[in-house]
Amino acid sequence: MTKPTDLQQRLTGLLSPTAVITGGSDLEPYAVDWRKLFPGRPACVVRPSSTEQVAQIVRICHDAGAAIVPQGGNTGLAGGAVPDASGTQVVLSLNRMAAIRRVDPVGLTIEAEAGCILKVAQDAAGAAGRLLPISLAAEGSATIGGVVATNAGGVNVLRYGMTRSLVLGLEVLPDGTVANGLRKLRKDNAGYDWKQLFIGSEGTLGIVTAAVLRLLPRPKHSMTALLSVADPAAALRLLELAQDELGDQISAFELISATSMQLVARHAGLKAPIAEGEWFVLIEAASSLAGLREAAESMLGSAFEQEIALDGVIAESGVQAAQLWALREHVTESEARESKSVKHDVSVPLTAVPQFLIEAGQALAAGAPGTRVNAFGHLGDGNIHYNVLVDAGQDADVVNHIVHDVVAAFGGSISAEHGIGQYRVGELARYRAATEMDLARTLKRALDPDNRLNCLDARPPWHER
Ligand code: FAD
Ligand code: MLT
Ligand code: ZN
């Protein structure tokens, strides 16, 4: 056995021995990301059980000059939650701080600790007859802290906005002190709204230990439909029609390519219950007023009449709705089983999505022949997961630049919802204007002057200069 370092000894002195992992197979799940693209080597993993312990850990790490990488469910797709390979960074896992402190069905709030699993928080809100509308395929493992730190999107953004729009209060540690902003207020213009800086900062500015999220009344009726369309332009026409006929009741509008469906059939054994097509759209609508189903049937009728939809089905029960959703939710996992992929989490203005898909396909065919595209995502938000299936010999940077150059030409973003992490540091510097990068560096230096939060030493474009 190797001798524990001073840092490990001080941390073990603070926490119980089982709350500090210094080696062995227990370390592995914390050291590498979900896709195993960023294998790291932590100095150790610490698992505090209170905000006070987090504060003490931060102080000990600062004294020792050690960097900290906050980690929630480690479901992130950008490699932001794992350390580099230096063996000097401490992974601070929030997974023991998982309590739901309070659900207030009248004030429409839920207060939860950072390590609380998103699904657990959704269920607690549901049990009180309320809705926490953040929903993503990783919700059974992703945590409230991770969701806040990444400003997660998911399938309900179209109606309820990104995580940011649902955060009322935060408790954060930018250093060894606790900024307690766990307010439950809808209106609060008393000075800077500093919590916004931490939402989406991916653990680079502070550690989130708890949050107050906004809830909504839970709609009494919901409707889920799967339709096939000829192409993405038809999918956009369907969105317009659905908005005309169902208005603000639409809560999800997801695009799925035939390739995605084939991968899900091959690796998850799931098959769409409608005729095969080139593109599919999964629509969900929800309302507390009666008549949703009738409105949806009428919308489907118009879609067929106007030859926008080729085939389609409305779920007859909750079980059938879950079966339709399973097709969409298994795309990421099925893609991972199929082959290596270069992921792109891009957004372009909504009406530009069809043309973006055409031009990105042409650019790839010319610059990276032999690659296959698995495109799917949140069409209602203009956010497409344009994932490129590659063989081992393919240079990921080349593929990234081909796709991102097309994104840039449409005035889009190289990360709509997954964030920068380790994966997109170089791409961020390439596509964001120098003035915006300078502003980001100014904020980083103000809040983390010694560059101790989230392995930025390994990310030169941020901290150099
Ligand atoms: P982690 O992966 O542990 O961490 C993510 C980042 O946040 C890291 O930079 C980490 O350092 C930081 N962080 C974590 N906890 C804290 C904290 N308490 N304080 C400060 N920083 C912290 N994302 C979407 O936006 N939309 C989707 O639709 C979506 N679908 C997904 C589907 C699948 C199958 C998978 C595997 C992932 C998907 N994701 C999606 C990505 C991921 O689930 C989200 O980014 C999620 O918010 C990450 O939560 P987490 O707890 O796992 O965070
Ligand atoms: C999803 O929406 O399922 C994920 O964000 C996408 C991905 O795996 O690229
Ligand atoms: Zn997504």
From TrEMBL:
InterPro entries (UniProt xref): FAD-bd_oxidored_4_C, FAD-bd_PCMH, FAD-bd_PCMH-like_sf, FAD-bd_PCMH_sub1, FAD-bd_PCMH_sub2, FAD-linked_Oxase-like_C, FAD-oxidored/transferase_4, Oxid_FAD_bind_N
Stretches assigned to the FAD-binding PCMH-type domain: 38-218
UniProtKB keywords: FAD, Flavoprotein
Domain of life where this protein originates: Bacteria
Keyword flag Flavoprotein: yes
GO terms of biological process kind: respiratory electron transport chain
Keyword Flavoprotein part of the UniProt annotation: yes
GO molecular function term, any single one: catalytic activity
Protein family: Belongs to the FAD-binding oxidoreductase/transferase type 4 family.
Protein name in the entry: FAD-binding oxidoreductase
